[in-house]
Amino acid sequence: xxxxxxxxxxxxxxxxxxxxxxxxxxxxxxxxxxxxxxxxxxxxxxxxxxxxxxxxxxxxxxxxxxxxxxxxxxxxxxxxxxxxxxxxxxxxxxxxxxxxxxxxxxxxxxxxxxxxxxxxxxxxxxxxxxxxxxxxxxxxxxxxxxxxxxxxxxxxxxxxxxxxxxxxxxxxxxxxxxxxxxxxxxxxxxxxxxxxxxxxxxxxxxxxxxxxxxxxxxxxxxxxxxxxxxxxxxxxxxxxxxxxxxxxxxxxxxxxxxxxxxxxxxxxxxxxxxxxxxxxxxxxxxxxxxxxxxxxxxxxxxxxxxxxxxxxxxxxxxxxxxxxxxxxxxxxxxxxxxxxxxxxxxxxxxxxxxxxxxxxxxxxxxxxxxxxxxxxxxxxxxxxxxxxxxxxxxxxxxxxxxxxxxxxxxxxxxxxxxxxxxxxxxxxxxxxxxxxxxxxxxxxxxxxxxxxxxxxxxxxxxxxxxxxxxxxxxxxxxxxxxxxxxxxxxxxxxxxxxxxxxxxxxxxxxxxxxxxxxxxxxxxxxxxxxxxxxxxxxxxxxxxxxxxxxxxxxxxxxxxxxxx
Amino acid sequence: xxxxxxxxxxxxxxxxxxxxxxxxxxxxxxxxxxxxxxxxxxxxxxxxxxxxxxxxxxxxxxxxxxxxxxxxxxxxxxxxxxxxxxxxxxxxxxxxxxxxxxxxxxxxxxxxxxxxxxxxxxxxxxxxxxxxxxxxxxxxxxxxxxxxxxxxxxxxxxxxxxxxxxxxxxxxxxxxxxxxxxxxxxxxxxxxxxxxxxxxxxxxxxxxxxxxxxxxxxxxxxxxxxxxxxxxxxxxxxxxxxxxxxxxxxxxxxxxxxxxxxxxxxxxxxxxxxxxxxxxxxxxxxxxxxxxxxxxxxxxxxxxxxxxxxxxxxxxxxxxxxxxxxxxxxxxxxxxxxxxxxxxxxxxxxxxxxxxxx
Amino acid sequence: xxxxxxxxxxxxxxxxxxxxxxxxxxxxxxxxxxxxxxxxxxxxxxxxxxxxxxxxxxxxxxxxxxxxxxxxxxxxxxxxxxxxxxxxxxxxxxxxxxxxxxxxxxxxxxxxxxxxxxxxxxxxxxxxxxxxxxxxxxxxxxxxxxxxxxxxxxxxxxxxxxxxxxxxxxxxxxxxxxxxxxxxxxxxxxxxxxxxxxxxxxxxxxxxxxxxxxxxxxxxxxxxxxxxxxxxxxxxxxxxxxxxxxxxxxxxxxxxxxxxxxxxxxxxxxxxxxxxxxxxxxxxxxxxxxxxxxxxxxxxxxxxxxxxxxxxxxxxxxxxxxxxxxxxxxxxxxxxxxxxxxxxxxxxxxx
Lengths: 564, 358, 351
What we know:
Structural class of chain A: mainly alpha
CATH architecture of the largest domain in chain C: 3-Layer(aba) Sandwich
CATH topology of the largest domain in chain C: Rossmann fold
Strand content of chain C: 35-45%
Structural class of chain C: alpha+beta
Oligomer: heterotrimer
Strand order of the largest sheet of chain A: 1-2
Number of helices of chain A: 24
Shape of chain C: globular
Largest sheet of chain A: 2 strands, antiparallel
Distance between the termini of chain A: 27 Å
Strand content of chain A: under 5%
Radius of gyration of chain A: 24 Å
CATH superfamily of the largest domain in chain C: P-loop containing nucleotide triphosphate hydrolases
Distance between the termini of chain C: 33 Å
Number of domains of chain C: 2
Number of strands of chain A: 2
Largest sheet of chain C: 6 strands, mixed
Shape of chain A: globular
Order of helices and strands of chain C: EEEHEEEHHHEHEHEEHHEEEEEEEEEEE
Number of helices of chain C: 8
Largest interface: A-B, 99 and 100 residues
Helix content of chain A: over 70%
């Protein structure tokens, strides 16, 4: 037995020691502020319009459902390609698909705009080709923009969660189905798909809840014709100043999240998939058959277009001088420049709030590192707690998922109400930001680590103990090594979530310690080509910082486990 | 395992700390701290801050949380245990709400005497006007020049088919008042001009003329506006009268004239006046009063234009040269009573949304 | 003095008694084969001895000392799991070195012992291989090497050959037997296969209904099965139910007539009228010869199989029981056959 499993069976049967810490985090940093803010909100006066609930509620479900289905549809082939084939640039490509995850929506909007906007590269190209005077592609403020942005953000979840289960699936199962006469297609539907049902559902739930609580994408890319609950909460709380309405909408959003998670829980009961802890590239091969080469090529091309091209378009903007046109509408004067980067290092206006990029990077990395640590420890403890069936397991999962459904505005205000005046107040307590981020990251850790943990045959642990390994060493030498891959994947998610989180951070981050997204937003909130350019430059830096961090984390994993 | 155990311990301790009842910060022996709560757009020069700090042997701390609405909510929600001594940045569209919530300690600065009447009305003896900015329509000068099209002069001109386009393809982009402060301000300008009975008809005519609505200023300005770096399709955008100055000051190559300009004719703009107030429950009342006075002094007032692109309310403040040259302020901005705004805000936005978004 | 002694183990599994007072011992240098059907609790006994599980009551003594309180990782027993439980994240040599590292042996000693253990199982060439690339037999050898490397005081093997094909099983049985004798480590070998038990066990312990129903030298157990279950479990087929009609001479009335079995030496013979089982031993049977002094059983040849150096004939006895006998010659299927039985061929079993 490893030491953490021992906590389960020996010290106390319900595993209290395992879920006490994550639960305490949830209670103190989620339920308590949430309760505090809702109480205050309902103490205020404001008219409740029931009719204003149905429209955003219906649309929220509708767009989340379509977005999730599309994400699965495009994510599954990618998960398949990454888990079954070796090809040049695979690792780089897999890392690139994680990058959108970090991007604050305001940057994503700028990225898509520079690619697909009225004067984006794509429209400019089409206009040149067709000689048309107006941009042929209308992207912004359409439903399609919301869907594409959601797929752009969340496809990484499907690739990672389903892909890791897929690569652990015994390839012989597929082979034997094929030997029994099933076509590749039938073998997928009859054998692989049912076996992957749980990871797919698990990933789909995360994607759905992310889309369900979508704010920036709907606000900035969807435009005023589309309103999710989260957007409605934001405008009710901060623009209508109707706090009871905002509180009611927040409660509805939470209730829906809980409901969806419970439904998921009841659908997802049953046997766990027969995963075998695979660590190296068993079951992967170079694509050989024409159809294999075809699917690898198509998938990589698709991912490149969806995930990489907008980022490249954004990065290009940070190097290109685009002067406002002087009458020749349609023409774009360009020139390469490093001015925006140079200017980042100058406090030209002598502002007391100026932050050198290095310091913003430092803040972001610090927060991200602490978030990763907290969420990985707490999430892994939870994963151990969930090894045991029982009431705790049934209730813990929905509870842990609940922060996904909490509006950033409501929770941000909740932090302020709950902790103002206490020693945890934003000004004196730097832990609040990573703790808030950890609440969002924890479900990811749980979902990544739990299946890996459950797939470890108990005999491995017992065998280690019989060979003389103390519980601590069983945990470190065997169990940790076997879940390290899943844990690294979880750490990547936590890290990127923290790097890119913007909503709740604005309420609790200290102005003298802005994160990269906060700094980007500062530049974008004033007119002027230099401000825009600097925002793009800062975004590019954010992307680079994240890419380097991800690469280092992967390297660290190799170093830790000594495997490729 | 060692590190993770230590970490678990650290977390437990933190949780325990968090569970302890909200305690009032213990007075420290070092220099006194004066905390100013404000919105994200607040900016000030380092040396202006140190002037005040040195004069009163105090450390200034700024707490920022989101836009004006978010910052005001923060002050309202924490009024029983205030996080700051001074609140800066409530504007006249939110003022009445702030006064209703009784978050401010009454204070009448002696410096108020020198201010024009338009800033000192509606104060109820609790808040102090600091700056103003006009929400106006900015236009792309080159675009209009190239087409030989006259720049619209009134709000009514905007409904003229000359400035129209297909639905959602017109020449003007505005922000949604339900999600944006300048959007709200522009809505108020139209209400001031056409009255509560007429403004919806006016908006219907704008809609028929193809007005584009987006949710936030960033999208309107950087994506839709043709004269910005985003190079969108609309040559007119709802922004600030000072935006053209920012376009010059923050140009990526030196410019001698702004690529944009504002329409500042009578009743086309809405004037946002920003106020500061002392938060009830402050334990540094005297210092807070000094800070309010300091904000009205030329030292602070002259710093604001280039930091926040707003105008000082103190007529004695010297406005920086590039600001005078490129920024503008409205001649006769639209005016609405803050009490009326507070009472009707909700209904106006709802009615507007019914007309424009359904 | 016996090195390992297990006394009165009780263990419930989901409220049903699994072990119901199990006691046995293992002497130094000997191999005890623990036989029982699947689900009888054999593995549980090993896990209790190893310290992975705790008994509800009962004691495990090592050299006379109760080791219930000694944690699993301090017992220095070797346990080879049925699924081998090789660590997939370590290569062959690292797997074998695991126990040595856990016991903090110096590096040179680790290298040396790994080398030695791999030699013992003829796997030195595989040291750097991934364990996931190995075949079943290779994995089995590595698991054995890993269990042996740290020189355990006691070796426990949990159906180590169950997953292997027959020829490999026979080959490995011989290797294991040689290895166990060579190292002299006392061992408990769990299996449900009587053939393995005969090959490997110095002594047999048969587990049934949560108890050890018979324990003794392998030969003795085969000679004198304690009861009908043991005989059946050991694959004996000539079992006839009957009633004791007389005690002297011992006479049992069966469907196939009167038989005169021997009783197990020292065992009490039940009273007249008791229902008993008579075991017909397949050894030394006379088929078709006429001898008036012997008991005779009639049957029909059902099936004849050629098994290389002998035949196996299945005879349907009058009771309907199929009795399987090895013979030197074949018999035509359907022939009527008379089995001449001397008293040594019949044994009285207790129900």
